[in-house]
Amino acid sequence: MNNHLYGMEEGAGADKERMISIVQASGNEKLSVAEKALLWERIAAGMVQPPVSHWWHSWWRVAAAVVMLLSAGLGWWQWQRPHEPLPALVAYAAGQTYSNGDTTVTRMILGNQQQLNIHNSHAAIAYQASGTQLKIDSQQIRQELAADRPVFNTLLVPYGNVASLQLEDGTKVWLNAGSRLVYPAAFGQQQREVFLEGEAYFDVAADAHRPFSVYADDMKIAVLGTAFNISAYHDETASQVVLASGSVRLEAFRGPGKKGAPVELSPGTRALYTGKNGNMTVDKVDVAGFISWKDGVIIAEHTSLYEILRKLSRYYNQPITTDTRSGNETFSGNLDLQKTMNDVLDIIAATTSLKYEREGSTIIFKTK
């Protein structure tokens, strides 16, 4: 009997050492060995040894103790881990619940949550008088600003629409279909920051004293004065920045790519960023093919038909795709987006070996 009890005590001691080792192996080094041992003793003190015939009950208690140890250590580690605060603009944008896809009307959301519906599918917006006035097409809107904090406005451009925007500092932005831009009505004295979801072309007004930054996906694109295109749609596998003139500096401000070194682009180059794994690659491209959309044209040079149809889907707010046999087709030529959707699709069909058919609400290109 005594030998049996001694064996159980010895086994419990071994279990204790194993449990402490497990906790240490989990990366929880904020609790000392002594603190872990004390925590184990407190857990063990409340455990009543079950009869030998029900040995599995004790293993359930051991498992529960392990969970408690791991949870305690994890909670301590999370409490001690420093959290870098997001920029106020990004935090504000992350807290929004507006969707680009729940309307066909372009919307301006002012800082006081007043919503302005813009029925022009090619809206033109310009800020004046240091951000206190904005002109939407021919309509003048006055906006009150706060003296002690920035006032963020939001422009939501749904599929089927595009918009142009002149910010308070003179920077011009062209927003493609299915995009959201969050920005201050008036920039501060030290920096100019905006948040983008979707695609936009920026022509940044030079200001050496106030760098201009765009937050898109997990990237931060910093410039002084330049022209570049950003595409950062949620349904794309990668975001991309194409530089037309000047120079930009890219870095990940959060996510897996944060540990990577910043990347500087020169004109005629593109950066591809995959936020899922933090990879960033740079290559040379023909800039015209990436920025022509702002002038109502798609310029393609042996471009994947699938990629072109995705752009047309957004622009015309119509699901358009290809079947599996036609997925590798390419297209070269210019597509005038001022024409009707059927005219554009007819051009694609006439210059490829494909035809298109409507199946339900989707248009599908197929081999003839």
What does this structure look like?
By secondary structure, this protein is an alpha+beta fold. The protein folds into three domains: 2-80, no CATH class; 88-288, Jelly Rolls; 296-367, Phage tail protein beta-alpha-beta fold (3-Layer(bab) Sandwich), CATH 3.55.50.30. It has seven helices and 23 strands. It has helices at 2-25, 33-45, 55-80, 88-94, 288-291, 305-316, 341-350, and strands at residues 106-109, 115-118, 122-128, 133-136, 139-142, 152-157, 162-166, 172-175, 179-184, 192-203, 212-216, 219-223, 227-232, 239-245, 248-252, 263-265, 269-274, 279-284, 297-304, 320-322, 330-336, 354-359, 362-367. The strands form three sheets. It has an 18-stranded mixed beta sheet that branches. Strands 20-23-22 form a three-stranded mixed beta sheet. Strands 19-21 form a two-stranded antiparallel ribbon. Helix 1 crosses helix 2 and helix 1 runs parallel beside helix 3. The termini are far apart. Mean pLDDT is 81; it is low at 1-10, 18-36, 43-60 and 62-82.
Give me a quick take on this structure.
This protein has seven helices and 23 strands. By secondary structure, the chain is of the alpha+beta class.
User: What portion of the residues fall into strands of 2 or more residues?
Assistant: 35-45%
List segments where confidence is low: pLDDT < 50 over at least 5 consecutive residues: 1-10, 18-36, 43-60, 62-82
- The assigned CATH architecture of the largest domain is Sandwich
Mean pLDDT: 81
- Biggest sheet, open or closed, and with what strands and sense? 18 strands, mixed
The top level CATH class name of the largest domain: Mainly Beta
Radius of gyration: 29 Å
Report helical residue fraction.
25-40%
Secondary structure class reads: alpha+beta
CATH level 3 topology of the largest domain: Jelly Rolls
Question: N-to-C SSE series?
Answer: HHHHEEEEEEEEEEEEEEEEEEHEHEEHEE
Number of domains: 3
Domain FecR protein: 160-249
Domain Protein FecR C-terminal: 299-364
InterPro entries: FecR, FecR_C, Ferrdict_sens_TM
Protein name: FecR domain-containing protein
